[in-house]
Amino acid sequence: MATAEQKQEGLHRDSSDFVITQTFDAPRELVFQSWVEPERLAQWWGPVGFELSVLALELQPGGVFHYGMRAENGYEMWGKFTYQQIEAPERIVSILSFADKQGNPVQHPVSATWPLESFNTMTLTEENGKTTMTLRSTPHKATDEQHETFKQGFESMKQGFKATFGQLAQYLARVQ
């Protein structure tokens, strides 16, 4: 549910929330480190078949994770997380956008009506040595049309995140 603050600012609409959850056979601290350490992120973040370059990672409110991804065919794209809150090792709140090489937000490469930014909350809980990660994402400062496009993209986002989180699971299995 949206907090009163989020509703007041108009930044959060429950009907537009994309939520995905996955459990990893790894302790919460390791999963958290895998999200915030450049050398770990480079091992798993992004679409399958892309090589990740970490251009900046400043783990503090207002700091950014700016990254580039390169496909085997040479296609390149960039993204950026702007951190809002960090509560190690249980929560990261950020604003995510596609970006240019300099880190400026840019429109989705294949959708003119995709929201320019999304507001993301990633939470980690641990039980019996396993970590459950929940990612909640909603359009940020978006029009009604952008919210609708975002909702229509849920299935594609689910497939993409499942593949990315599969890479995270493989990484975690290798480093434990």
Automatic annotation (TrEMBL):
InterPro entries xrefs: ASHA1/2-like_C, START-like_dom_sf
Domain of life: Bacteria
Domain Activator of Hsp90 ATPase homologue 1/2-like C-terminal: 25-172
Similarity comment: family membership: Belongs to the AHA1 family.
Protein name: Polyketide cyclase
UniProt organism field: Janthinobacterium svalbardensis
